[in-house]
Write a structure and sequence with these properties.
The protein is an alpha/beta fold. Helices cover 31% and strands 23% of the residues. Helix 3 crosses helix 5 and helix 3 packs parallel to helix 7. The termini are far apart.
Length: 479
C-alpha cells in the first residue's frame, strides 16, 4: 500500500452534499480528497430530483392549459411517446452530468477516488487501496429507498426511484405505496402520461404539509384521474397473472385488494450508514442516521456529516438545498472557526405536483403547539389578476405569525409556489414582520402579488377598529 494521503479534508460521497462541499473547499484552496463508490452526482442527479422533474415537465406537456377548454372547439390532448419521454429524461441528466463529473472536480484541484470508504480508526479512512489521514472528514453517504415490511413483498418485482426511470414501456396500472412527495409527484406524472395510477397511504396525503393546502392537491389528483386510498392498512403483496396484487384494509377496516401491472415503492428514505466503519471511527448513529449537533459535527470531533445520511433532529431534512446549506455550515465552522448552526426550520420544501405545494417554517398546527396565541392570514391565488387572466384559479398563500406580526411560517399551494417561497424563506431568516412584505412593491400583474396581499390581511382588522375610525374622522376635519 502506498503512503497515506494527508489532505485537509476528506469527503465520503459525491452526491449533492459532498459535491457542494468539495466545490466550496476547492474554491478556498483547501486540499481535498473526494471518495465515491458509485456514480458522481449521487441520487439527486441520477435517480431523484433531476429525472423526476424532467418526467414531470414531460407529463405537463400532455395536459392542456386550463384555458384550452374555453378557447378550443375540439380538445385533443397530444399522444406522447414513452421512448421520447424517456429520451427527454435521460437527455436532461446527461446535460447536467458534466458539472458533477470527476473530471470537473479534478480540474478544480480535488483528488477523486472511486472506491468504497470506511473508517479504520478515529483519524483514518481506507478508500480502496489507499489510506486517507485527513485533518477533517465529512460523511455525505446519502440515502436509499426505504422498503417497508409487507408480507410477500420479497417475492414480487417492484420499482423504486432508482429503477422507475428506466422503464422501457409505460405501466398499464401503477400501484404506488406512499403518498408523500415522491409518490404524489410520480403518481400524477405517470397518470398524465397515460397510466392508470392508484396511490396508497397509511395516513393522509402529503402528511408533512398543511391539511388545508393538501386539500387543493387532493382535488387536483382526483381531477387528473389518480385513485387515492388514504388511511388504509397494508396487509400483503402477491403476484398476479397480469402483474401484482395488493391486499389492504380501508378506513373502515374492510378488506380490499387492487391489481396493477407495476408496483412502485415510495415510502421514504433510509440513510446509508452501513459499510462506513462508523464504530471504528467512534461515530454515533441509529436507524435515523448519523447523529450530529447544530454544527453538523458527529461524536468524533474531527468528523462531520451532511445530507441524507444525517439522522436525529435533522433526519427529516433530506433536500439538495439543505445539503448545500449544511456544507456551508461545515466550511464556516471547520475551516474559518466561525460560529455556524444549521436550522431546519429555515429550509423551504417543495412538492412539484400540479399545483405545487411549498412551505417554510412552522405550520399552523406546529405554531399553535409551540406558541399558543398566533395569527393566520390567507389570500387566494385566484384573486390575483394574473390568475384570472391565465385561468389558474386554485391555490392560496397561508401565513402564520405571532400576534405582533412576526412571521413564524408560510405555505403556498398553486402554480409557481416553489418560485414564490424564497421570499418567505428570507423573511423568516431575517425575523421580518409582515409589515415589511405588506409594503413590498410587486410587479403587476403577477402571482407573487398574492404574497403581499396575504401579508396585508394581517392589518385588515386594524382598519375596522373604532379608535382608528375616530382618528380618521378627526384628520378629515383638517382637510
Amino acid at each position: 500500500m502506498s503512503e497515506a494521503l494527508r489532505p485537509d479534508l476528506c469527503i465520503i460521497g459525491a452526491g449533492a452534499a459532498g459535491l457542494s462541499l468539495a466545490a466550496s473547499a476547492a474554491a478556498f484552496g483547501v486540499p481535498t480528497v473526494l471518495v465515491e463508490r458509485g456514480e458522481m452526482g449521487g441520487e439527486c442527479l441520477n435517480t431523484a430530483c433531476v429525472p423526476s422533474k424532467a418526467l414531470i415537465a414531460a407529463a405537463r406537456a400532455a395536459r392542456p392549459s386550463p384555458l384550452a377548454p374555453r378557447l378550443a372547439k375540439e380538445l385533443v390532448p397530444p399522444a406522447l411517446e414513452h421512448q421520447r419521454v424517456l429520451s427527454h429524461v435521460n437527455g436532461v441528466v446527461a446535460d447536467i452530468a458534466p458539472a458533477d463529473s470527476a473530471a470537473r472536480y479534478a480540474a478544480l484541484g480535488v483528488e477523486v477516488i472511486k472506491a468504497e470508504a470506511a473508517f479504520t480508526e478515529r483519524t483514518t479512512v481506507r478508500a480502496g487501496d489507499k489510506l486517507v489521514k485527513a485533518r477533517r472528514f465529512v460523511i455525505a453517504s446519502g440515502s436509499e429507498p426505504a422498503i417497508p415490511e409487507i408480507a410477500g413483498l420479497d417475492a414480487v418485482p417492484f420499482l423504486t426511484n432508482e429503477t422507475v426511470f428506466a422503464l422501457q414501456e409505460p405501466p398499464r396500472h401503477l400501484l404506488v405505496i406512499g403518498a408523500g412527495t415522491v409518490g404524489c409527484e410520480l403518481g400524477q406524472a405517470f397518470r398524465r402520461l397515460g397510466s392508470e395510477v392508484t396511490l396508497f397511504e397509511q395516513g393522509r396525503l402529503l402528511p408533512q404539509e398543511d391539511e388545508e393546502l393538501v386539500g387543493v392537491v387532493r382535488a387536483a389528483l382526483e381531477r387528473d384521474g389518480v385513485s387515492l386510498r388514504e388511511e388504509i392498512k397494508l396487509a400483503a403483496v402477491a403476484a398476479a397473472p397480469d402483474g401484482v396484487r395488493l391486499h389492504y384494509s380501508d378506513e373502515t377496516s374492510a378488506p380490499r385488494q387492487t391489481t396493477g401491472s407495476h408496483l412502485l415503492i415510495a415510502a421514504g428514505r433510509s440513510p446509508r450508514t452501513y459499510g462506513l466503519g462508523l464504530e471504528e471511527g467512534f461515530i454515533k448513529y441509529d436507524k435515523s442516521g448519523i447523529i450530529v449537533d447544530h454544527g453538523m459535527r458527529t461524536s468524533n470531533p474531527r468528523v462531520f456529516a451532511i445530507g441524507d445520511c444525517v439522522g436525529g433532529d435533522f433526519g427529516g431534512c433530506r433536500f439538495t438545498h439543505a445539503a448545500s446549506l449544511q456544507a456551508s455550515v461545515v466550511i464556516r465552522s471547520a475551516f474559518f472557526r466561525l460560529p455556524s448552526r444549521f436550522d431546519p426550520l429555515r429550509v423551504p420544501r417543495v412538492t412539484f405536483t400540479d399545483p405545487e405545494v411549498a412551505s417554510v417554517g412552522l405550520s399552523e398546527g406546529e405554531a399553535r403547539s409551540k406558541h399558543g396565541d398566533i395569527r393566520v392570514c390567507r389570500f387566494a391565488l385566484g384573486e390575483t389578476d394574473r390568475a384570472r387572466a391565465e385561468g389558474e384559479r386554485e391555490g392560496l398563500v397561508k401565513l402564520v405569525s405571532s400576534p405582533n406580526g412576526r412571521l413564524l411560517g408560510a405555505a403556498i399551494c398553486g402554480k409557481g409556489a416553489g418560485e414564490m417561497i424564497p421570499l418567505w424563506t428570507l423573511a423568516l431568516k431575517e425575523g421580518m414582520k409582515l409589515s415589511k412584505i405588506a409594503s413590498l412593491v410587486t410587479p403587476y400583474p403577477t402571482l407573487s402579488d398574492a404574497s403581499r396581499r396575504a401579508a396585508l390581511e394581517f392589518y385588515t382588522p386594524m382598519a375596522r377598529r373604532p379608535i382608528l375610525r375616530r382618528l380618521m374622522g378627526v384628520l378629515r376635519k383638517f382637510g
